[in-house]
């Protein structure tokens, strides 16, 4: 059972085609749109401001979304939020990616199809233009995002769309096996690789 909490009479909204892991926590003014994925141990606290995941967005395990009173924290269509990232009162544009353990602060705007590198710190009020590669602490714009990088990102986001579908259909709590079965199956997915491997392959 997903941990969903009402506060001051305001309940989270989860579209029936979205998947929210049972260990995630949704509090108050949280709106999860169609085909979204919310991973294990994510914390979406709509107890001060409103949190919105638009269609196809994913917020992975250990992420935190929150904001000051009256603020909106928004992940637009197909936004991709990597493991452990923190979003606080900001807006992540359409088809943008926020890397693992990155932090995006209040009133920052990450433009559509931009990439915020893992471990980056995006300061409050920073406006990142569309298709920007951003990295560092504090984060700075280092170059434009390439078509190849957007194509790579799209593969990963599409896999999270499928993961939401598979999870709704087949994920269930079970007892662990005590030994490995003969001919143990692997998860079947379209091939994908980390960005640095993808870039090296394209350069060769």
From TrEMBL:
InterPro entries in UniProt: PaaY, Transf_Hexapept/Carb_Anhydrase, Trimer_LpxA-like_sf
What's the domain of life for this entry?
Answer: Bacteria
Task: Name it.
Answer: Phenylacetic acid degradation protein
Q: Which organism is it from?
A: Pseudoduganella flava
Q: Which gene encodes it?
A: paaY
